[in-house]
Amino acid sequence: MSGYKRNIMITGGAGFIGSHVVRLFVDKYPEYRIVNLDKLTYAGNLANLKDVEDKPNYVFEKADICDFGKMQEIIRKYEIDGVIHLAAESHVDRSIRDPFTFARTNVMGTLSLLQAAKVCWEEDLKGYDGKLFYHISTDEVYGALQFDGKLFTEETHYQPHSPYSASKASSDHFVRAFHDTYGMPVVVTNCSNNYGPYQFPEKLIPLFINNIRHKKPLPVYGKGENVRDWLYVEDHARAIDLIFHKGKIAETYNIGGFNEWRNIDLIKVIIRTVDRLLGNPEGTSEHLITYVTDRKGHDLRYAIDSTKLKTELGWEPSLQFEEGIEKTVRWYLDNQEWMDNVTSGDYQRYYDEMYKNR
Ligand code: NAD
Ligand code: TYD
To answer: Among residues 11, 90, 13, 14, which one has the least CA distance to residue 45?
Structure first.
């Protein structure tokens, strides 16, 4: 017996959202042991967790979720009773260039993790009692909305368009199939676009903040008219905490901020905020906006209806968008060293060396 009340494995904990979830759980639940399992791909960075790495209830395991044997070993070693699964390839543009990696990690990796949990939990004396496999997914599995005010609900049919969303949709189906077939306790959440500290600067918001700072062009896909629904990452982490503890088994919950923005409008807010915080006169960086060829199959609009989560579990976003963007821009401007390490790839060379012989 580990002596901990719960032993929770968070996959992808060195990534953007995962690092916020790990931090929240490690700090809020000293009675839980939190095992952060991450392969440390280009998107994983242990510098995101500097403030928790010495906590006694935190453990890091560098491993690939596709390694079925290793997943069983880790689940047994730490007596894992809860999995919060965030590890994934997460960038749409990369999925268009290299769909195989997405199928491997997002589909086969999730299946490997599910099967490892199944094998280990079924051999446990208590079986599935007290266990939970919580799968983190995206609103992109629902496809694209028109400009008609409709929102994605938990009943919306899956219609993924990009290799990324197709791979996430497939993994969601496997998770639900493990409940329906084997009785595994699962829960799935589909969240809208997240923003905040520690996001890899290939995604719109950190990329643009960094480019403005370096006076580099801001590549706006197409006409900049696509709409995304933005949620501050710590609000997502709070929702995950709530659903992990209070969500109903086999349910799906949508998570979103009722906060839709046309890309071009959002970009102008970012430009204004960065210029203001850098002490530049308003409008200084607007000329950096550069319209470029549209993303292939670019989904027009995403918008999440998170009424169910509000009504059943009482969750609401805590931050207004203006406040969230201000905090986010400030964080990236104050953490240039983090940004420089990430953009130069230095962090990867450092951790590759550190884990080379393990
Ligand atoms: P991210 O790319 O920042 O982080 C992914 C993490 O997974 C990295 O630390 C990476 O090293 C790790 N990883 C990748 N492949 C792995 C493998 N084979 N084995 C072990 N670890 C591996 O992603 P993110 O933006 O933090 O997204 C986390 C999860 O949330 C993903 O499942 C994503 O689909 C989902 N999601 C993201 C958003 C968003 O706006 N970012 C919105 C909704 C849902
Ligand atoms: P992104 O952050 O990649 O998230 P997602 O594709 O998962 O929604 O992109 C957000 C929106 O911004 C999306 O409509 C594509 C657009 N975009 C650009 O216009 N330029 C860019 O350089 C990037 C990365 C995204």
So the answer is: 14
